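Sequence in, structure out. Go.
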Amino acid sequence: MEGFVTRIIDDEMIGVTGEDDFEIPVPASKVTTVHGYQAPGTKSTAIEEQAIPSGEFKTKGVYMGVISDPKANSVVHFYLINDTSYQLLTTLTTEKQQVFKGEFAGSIPPKSSEKIYSAQLADLQLWPKFIFNVLFYTTQNIQPVEPLRVNEKFKAKDFAGAKKQLPLLNQSGWLIQLDEPEFTIDAQQLKESFFKSAEEKTETKRPSQEVDLHIEKLRDDYQFLNGAEILKIQLDHFNKALDAAIVHQLPDITFIHGAGNGILKHELHKLLSKNNRIQTFMDARKEKFGYGATKVILK
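Output:
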């Protein structure tokens, strides 16, 4: 008879249930495993794949995409993006203070994405650790790759960069690659870099005529920064823009700092007064900026 093992009776006997739903005691030594059985009315969840030439089969491209909710910017959604040619058999488990919780388990087809988690962005410091386990599956004649296991504790710096267009989702967000390609050194490029002149290695970009120093224009993670950190970032940006204006011999440049509590404006004016490349500085056009911008005239 054929059936399913439904009960272990003792060390020598097991219960086997057939399609008639009757359980029969059977000696364990008489049981043989039958592979490939599929119960009536069920079907395989494996995805039918389109044949891809081996030279075009993409083996890298597993990402975590983080997108702000369109209706509530304080909420972010996590998507696992499969930009490979594999089917990904994926699980996500979170861990916080040795408490584990399964958050997601599923199959993600090639060139697709799946939302797997949501959280409050303001609670970033309280987020749990993310534990990803990914198996790579294909029916094609492709050498298997090692399973991917990633333990990730996200920090504010992971969201410090500018948002970018996310592959497959066609939305703006933060992108973190989970299957980072192995680091390789291009010997020729390394050799060329040694023989480049200083001018070739450093190129100063021409700044715009008006430079906005509001922190939300400079950093996406500004809500996680304290006052001292914000001021340092603003002053660093100011100094770089001012140096670039001097290098490119601009006649003048305007810095938009806002009115606020006046701390940033005071620090800018203090730095400008000590710079011998500055001819003078003044409040910019009040009809446009009020008292929230400073125009700098260069020598």
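Check: Residues 60 and 182 are 10 Å apart (CA to CA). The chain has six helices and 16 strands.
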